[in-house]
Amino acid sequence: MIRAAVVFLAAVCALPAGAQDAKKEIERYQRMVSEGSPVELFEIGGEELWKKPAGPRNVSLEKCDLGLGPGVLKGAYARLPRYFADTDRVMDLETRLVHCMTTLQGRSLQDATRRVFGNEDRPSELEYLSAYIAAQSRGVKMAPGTRHPKEQAALELGRALFFHRAGPWDFSCASCHGEPDRRIRMQELPVLYEPRYARAVVATWPAYRVSNSQLKTMQWRLNDCYRQMRMPEPTFGSEATVALNLFLAATGQGEPYRGPGTKR
Amino acid sequence: MDRLRRTVVAALGAALLKPWAVLAAWNKEAFGAKTAPEALKGIGAVGAAPSKDIVIDVPQIAENGAVVPVEITSNIPGTKSLSVLVDKNPFPLVAKFDFMEGALPFVKVNVKMGETSDVRVIAEAGGKHYVATKEVKVTIGGCGG
Amino acid sequence: MAAGPMKMRASVNGGVTDIRVLMTHPMETGQRKDQDGKLVPMHFIQNVTVKLNGKTVVESQISQGVSRNPVFSFRVKGGARGDKVEVSWVDNQGESNRTETAIA
C-alpha cells in the first residue's frame, strides 16, 4: 500500500518532456527575483536589533559569541551549527541567539522564544537577526562543526532522522528529497543528502520567501517540513532540529555562502 | 488612548512638517479601472500604436504571482512616461512613471499578478502613445523553499 | 516616521547614474484577510519621487498592484560621485518616508 503510494508519487512527480525549457525559465525567474529582492531590508532590521539594548540587563547582543568569539560576526554563520563548550551541546544560529538573549540580556527563555516565527506585518526578532548575521558570512565557505564527538553524534542523529519514516503517511525527508527529478507542481525537490544538491540549498538559507513576503529561517523550514509530512511539530531549537540542520549544513559544506536568499 | 493620541499628533505633525509628502497627484480613475481598456482610457492611451522599441524584460514563467520582476526600457526618442498594466489583474493599471530632467525611460519594478496574463507597457513620447505586451505564465508553487 | 527600513544605492557608470531603492511597505490590496478573518484595509504607496541634487527627475504613481516591500530601479543621465539622490514616498493613509544617499 505504502509502496504503491510512493510509486504513484514518483510517477506524478517525474519530469515530463519539454520541462527543461520550463526549468530554464523558472531559473531565470529565480535570478530576476533575487536581483530585485527586498531581503536586504531584513538585514538592516537585524543590525538594529543586534545593537539595541534589551532585557532586564538592558544590554545589546553585540557581545554574543556565535563561535568565533564575542561579537565576531564575519564568517560566524558559515561555521554553524557547531559545538559550544559553554553549553556543552551543538547549537545552530537560532538556538545560539536565544542563548545570548537569556545569558547576556537576562531575558527568560519564555520571553526570548515567545514569538520565534513572525508574519509579514511583524517579522520576529530571530528572523531579523538571522538575516543580518547570515549576511556577514557572504562569500565564506560553509564549514559547520563535524569533528567534536557531540558534533559527530548530532550528524548521525541528523542522518538517521532524514531517512526515518514516520507519521500517518510514513514519510521521511527522503520521501521528497531522496531521489533526483522529483517535484511538487513546479517546485523541483533537491536530493538533500547529496552534496551537489545540498550545497546550493544551504548557501541560500535563511531566505525571503516572496509567496508570503517573509524572511524564513532554517528552524522554520524544518518545522514546516514536519507539518507537511503530517508529523508532530518539533520543539523550536530541539536536539532533533539542530541535528538535522547540522546534517544538511555538513552535506553542503564547502559552498561559499551567498545568502540571505530569495525564494518562492 | 494615549497611544491613539500620539498617533494622531504624529500624523498631524507629519502632514505639517513634510510639505513634500502631500498634494502629490494620483490618477484615481485610472487606478480604479477594472479592465485594461478602461485603465488605458484613464491614462489617455486609447489606440496606442504597437512598438517594438519598448523592451519588456519579464520571466516567461513566474513561480509565484506575488512578485513578478519587470524591467522596461523605451528606445522611442523623447519618451516622457512609462505605464505598466497587468491585463488580468482586478485593477490592471499598476504604475505610471513620469521622467523629467535627464531621467532615462527605464524602470525596474516588482508587480503582483493574480494569474497568467499579458504585462502591458504604454510609452508616451511626442504627445503620442505606444504599446508593447509580453505574457507571463503564473504558476502555483509547490510547498518548499 | 513609523515606517520600516528603507535603503538606496546610487552609482554612476559611463555617464549614467543607477539608482536602486528598497522600501518596507505592506502594499495591502484590501482583499487579504487577517488571522481573525477580517479584511485588512487598503494600505499602499501611491507616489514615489526621485530627486537628483534637489531636482525632481522621476515622479511615480503606483498602486496596490506593486509587490509588498517594493524595490525600484531607475536611471538618470548625468550625476557625479558625491551628488545627492533622494527618494521619498507617500501612501494612501498619509504615511511617508524618505531616504537619501550620495552617488558612489
Characterization of this structure:
The complex is a heterotrimer of chains A (264), B (145) and C (104). With 264 residues, chain A is mainly α. Chain A has one domain (36-263): Cytochrome c-like domain (Cytochrome Bc1 Complex, Chain D, domain 2, Orthogonal Bundle). Helices cover 45% and strands 8% of the residues of chain A. Chain A is built from eleven helices and seven strands. Chain A has a three-stranded mixed β-sheet with strand order 6-5-7. Chain A has a two-stranded antiparallel sheet with strand order 1-2. A two-stranded antiparallel ribbon of chain A has the order 3-4. In chain A, strand 5 and strand 6 (214-216) form a beta hairpin. Chain A is globular, with a radius of gyration of 19 Å. The model of chain A is unreliable at 4-15 (pLDDT under 50). Chain B is an alpha+beta fold. Chain B has one domain: Immunoglobulin-like (Sandwich), CATH 2.60.40. Chain B is 19% helix and 41% strand. Chain B is built from three helices and nine strands; from the N terminus they run αααβββββββββ. Chain B has helices at 2-17, 28-32, 36-42; strands spanning 49-50, 54-57, 61-62, 68-74, 79-86, 93-99, 103-111, 117-125, 128-138. In chain B, strands 1, 3, 5, 6, 8 and 9 form a six-stranded mixed β-sheet that branches. The radius of gyration of chain B is 18 Å and the shape is globular. In chain B, 43% of the residues are buried. The model of chain B has no long low-confidence stretch (mean pLDDT 88). Chain C has 104 residues and is mainly β. Helix content of chain C is 0%, strand content 52%. Chain C has no helices and seven strands. Chain C has strands spanning 6-13, 16-23, 45-52, 55-62, 71-77, 84-91, 96-102. In chain C, strand 1 and strand 2 form a beta hairpin. The model of chain C has no long low-confidence stretch (mean pLDDT 94). Strand 6 (93-99) of chain B pairs antiparallel with strand 4 of chain C.
